[in-house]
Amino acid sequence: MKRIWKMPKMFILMLALTLAVIGCSANETESPNSNQAEGNTQNDGNSGETSGSIANGDVTLSVGTNDNYYTPKSLTSGLPVWQEIEKKTGVKIDWDVVPASQYAQTMKVRVAAAQDLPDILNAPEGDPIKLADQGILIPLDELIEAHAPNITRFFEDYPELKSLMTAPDGHIYAISSVTSGAAKTDPYALILNRRWLDALGLEEPTTLDEWHRVFKAFKEQDPNGNGQADEIPFSPRYATRDLGLFGSALGLHMFYSSGYAPNAQGEMEFQWMKDEAKELIEWSHQLYEEGLIDPEFASFNEEQFNSKFSRDMIGATSGFLANTANFATLQADNGIASPDWMITVPPTGEASEPFYEEYGPLSGWFGITSSADNPEAAIKWLDYVYASEEGSRYMAFGIEGQSYEMVDGKPQFTEWTMNNPDGLDFTAALRSLGAFPTVPWIRATEGYLSDQPAAIMAYKPDLKAQAEHVESYLIPATPLGLPSVEENERLTTLQTDINTYLQENLVQFVMGSKPIDWDKFRSDLNGLGIEEVVAIKQAQYDRFQEALQ
Amino acid sequence: MIRQAAIVLSRVRRDWILLLIALPPILYYVIFHYIPMYGILIAFKDFRPIEGILGSPWAGFKYFEQFFNSIYFWRLIRNTLLLSLYSLLWGFSMPILFAVLLSELRNPWFKKTVQTASYLPHFISIAVVAGMIVTFTSPVDGLINQLLGLLGIAPINFLAEAGWFRTIFVSSNIWQSFGWESIIYIAAIAGINPHLYEAAEMDGARRWQKIRHITLPGIAPTIVILLILNIGNLMSVGFEKVLLLYNPATYETADIIGTFVYRRGIQNAEFSYGAAISLFNNVINIALLLIANYTSRKTSETSLW
């Protein structure tokens, strides 16, 4: 009889392990999950401090973060960029890394045990508030003032970013990677199969009706030419959030702002509750009924998506501009002649100006833990890699002579990076050296911290043209200051049920398994405490606005 | 007293080797199952890592109340129970049936082949099984829908329709586990005294009568014990598979306590809340186990204790 007991346990252990591998599928590149925004920026263009020396090789810092996204080269294997930085700073780094897909889960448990924490920690949660309240992250503001001249100057140049990183109690507990520069050159947008468009002699759609007509034509006129109506006109990658991109035509900020946006009077609204959102959902439902949306959109799965892609079944999806190149490569590798993917202008409506929300401007949170023996060295090290000219160049460009050259005082990527002999795309090529890192770094809009996006565009005229195609439509996502400890606790309590309710119902509305009843939808959300969430978002929004003045 | 101590000592001296053998499992249970139980406290605390479980402030029944007041409370209970109940209902009889049928086979080579083939799926990782299900049931190009298409049936979006979830979950569970679970019954059948069969044959019993009057009664204690154990696990569905197969479109039938704990307790790092729900879950499991055991002890001879 003993046997019965033993098996389930071993089985569960095995399951737990396999689950750990696939359970959380973090995105390879930046996931569009940040909902912060950027205001006006100015930078005097001063160069950063260049003398990087912090210690004489007798200081070791442990850095806890996810491992290199280019998985064949672990940070622990002594990558060139980090060897150079070690020489420059005199600080040895003990990489406490976990593969990216498992990082958050693993580190959350370690944080909960509060033992053997690394000196510098990539916060495994959405924001640093809870960790700071629990005493795991220490305040950085005094350390920055005393020991981090580059970060100080960066904050002076970009006060709105500083304010986004400042907790309501006035302290800075963590610094964040900045993506505002990349957001301009690598926007997140709707992506369309231009080859299909051309094959059917169609124009780039702008209004919702035009999109509908294009999707219908994709479905009915066999643009992939295989004689079967197997085309999937629109295959969303983030389910109803992707459908939310069409909300641009109705003035809805559903993607990076998740529906929380202020109206003209500056009052925060939850836009999913508006009549316009109902309109959007009805439109989506119509599309779904006509077979124009991928029937598997609710259970998105990267492999299936790629498989459809490589068989030329998909007409439109969403993604970063850089993804268009990956899509084309994927199709070319599968024998599809001259694949051609374009990002489109945002859907236009009568009620509002069309727009795409920008990614970021912040991404991830990095702080110093209370178990750090030498916080001074830690902040100096962060100052060097995060905001100094030399350090940030290592992050953005890698190794001089290999991945970049200096041309007229400006770094330019080499052929090795942009047309890598091993067939790596440029991000992977940089990551194989240790650049494009998983520690905080900056791609800003001005000054030396903005060199990378420009250098990429210089090498990719086709991407540049596409970026310019939508540049005038880019607007910041709703800027929210960090929540207070109490607000944070209420948000976690309320938002889990709200998100479950929202995802479930929107998907069911679109698929038609539930009749679209917006009155009930609204009253249910009210019952789940949406008003309190909106009030908290309002407070966060107001705090940010005040800090700017 | 002294005499008793002397007796104990002499018994220890006599049986020391047996005690030694028993020691590792006892230590295992103490170290890994009893000592960690103090962690249950976390469900009643506002857990703060720096202060540890014991140092964190008390929260009372706050997290239990939060769970009981959640609009999803009843749905989670219903989904968890139904998923288990269906698994038990359809899944429990299958290995018994299979073991009995297998034991009636004459050709040993055929018997071994069938048995081996039947428990192979058990060794496939749940992640792979989930991947297979996703691929086979795809409404775009899945095998099952292509077969249905040949019969003129429009594609069914199996994984996006709440009504299909339990069927898919339970049937794939049976496919994966019936062979493996039948092993214990096959062993029990092999343990039945062959004289009984010979005697029955002398009395002119036919095959069906032998199954009914010898095989089934012979393995009845095994069946009852396994049933009690299964009932004690009613509230703990293998949540990994649910997690891999569900999506917002099927939450209605697929969202169970385990997945809810995963989303809130693990993903949101609300460890106290997660622990509270799990504790509640286990209390129900123990209650069910006690009821099943009690009922069995009263109605038949067999029980766990």
UniProtKB/TrEMBL annotation, chain A:
Chain intervals with Polar residues compositional bias: 28-54
The keyword Chaperone appears for this protein: no
SUPFAM superfamilies according to UniProt: Periplasmic binding protein-like II (SSF53850)
Keyword terms: Cell membrane, Lipoprotein, Membrane, Palmitate, Signal
Secretion signal span: 1-26
InterPro entries per UniProt: Bact_solute-bd_prot1, SBP
Record bears the keyword Nucleus: no
Region (Disordered): 28-58
Pfam families associated with the record: SBP_bac_1
Entry protein name: Extracellular solute-binding protein
The organism of origin for this protein: Paenibacillus sabuli
Automatic annotation (TrEMBL), chain B:
InterPro entries tied to this protein: MetI-like, MetI-like_sf, UgpAE/MalFG_permease
Membrane topology qualifier: Multi-pass membrane protein
Residue stretches making up the ABC transmembrane type-1 domain: 77-292
Membrane spanning residue stretches: 16-35, 81-102, 122-140, 147-165, 177-197, 218-239, 271-292
Keywords: Cell membrane, Membrane, Transmembrane, Transmembrane helix, Transport
Subcellular location as annotated: Cell membrane
UniProt KW Transport keyword: yes
Coarse class of the protein's main subcellular location: membrane
SUPFAM superfamilies: MetI-like
GO cellular component term of the entry, any: plasma membrane
GO biological process: transmembrane transport
Family: Belongs to the binding-protein-dependent transport system permease family.
UniProt name for this protein: Sugar ABC transporter permease
Annotated source species: Paenibacillus sabuli
